[in-house]
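Section handout, structural biology tutorial.
Before the tutorial, make sure you can parse a SMILES string by hand: atoms, branches in parentheses, ring closures as digits. In the record below the ligand is zinc ion, and the chain has 245 residues. In the tutorial you will relate the predicted C-alpha cells back to the input. Do not try to memorize them.
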Amino acid sequence: MSHTRTRRASRHIPDAIKRQLRQEAGFGCLFCGAIICTYEHILDFAQSRAHDPDKMGYICHQCHGKVTRKYWSKAAVEAAKEDPYCKRLGFAHEFVFSPDTGKTVKMGSVTMDGVQNQLVIFDEPVISIACQPEDGLILLNVRLHDEKGQLFLEIVDNEWRIRPSSWDVECVGGRVALQRKSGDKPLIISSRDDGVLEFQNMDFKHRGVRITADRAGMQAHFPNRPPITIHGAHLADAISGIVIG
Ligand SMILES: [Zn+2]
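Predicted structure of the complex:
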C-alpha cells in the first residue's frame, strides 16, 4: 500500500551522502572554505522528502546563517554549489585548534614535550611547533607530501590548508581525519583535552623517505638502506626531535 502523506526526511543523513557533499565542496565550506562544517539543506529548506544531495551543501555555521536569513540569494547559493570556494582556491582553510594545543605532541608511540621541530628530514622541518616568546602562542607548521610528491596537507602558522585532491577529509569531535585514497587508513590529527596534539596512522613521503607511524612505533623507509624504527621514545626540551637525513 502506498502512502500519500508527505513524510519529512529523518534527521540522519547517510554517510555516503555526507562524503559526497564533502568531496563536492573540496572539504571546506562552499562559500568561505572553513573546514568545520555541517550538512545543510540550502536549496530545500522544507526538507520534505529524502536528503537530496543536489539540494544540500557542506557549509559552515556562519555561512549557513547568511543563507537561512536570506542575505544570500538563491542564485548565489546555486553558483557556490556549482563552483565551490575550495576548488577555486585550491584548498580548504581554517584555524582549527586553539593556540594552546601542542605543548606535547604524540606521533605514533613517540611523545615530545617542549620540542620545537618534531620531525626534520634532510634539514627541512616537516612538523614543527614554535612557541612565540612574546605571547606564548603555539604556531603549528606541517607539510606532508604523498608518494608522488604532491602536497596533501599544509598547516601554516596554525592555518590548515587541505587540498581537494584527497578522497575524504572529515572533521568531527576535535579530530581531522584525512584519507588520501579510498580504503586507506585515515591520517588522524586530534587535539586532546589535555592540550596534547596527536598524529595517528602517519604515512607520507618526503624527498624519497617514507615515514610511517602508528602505536607500534615510527619507521623511516629509505630507497637504498634499511629502515629506521623508533619505539616508544619520549623526547623533551630540544630544538629538534626526530632528525632524518
Ligand atoms: Zn562558510
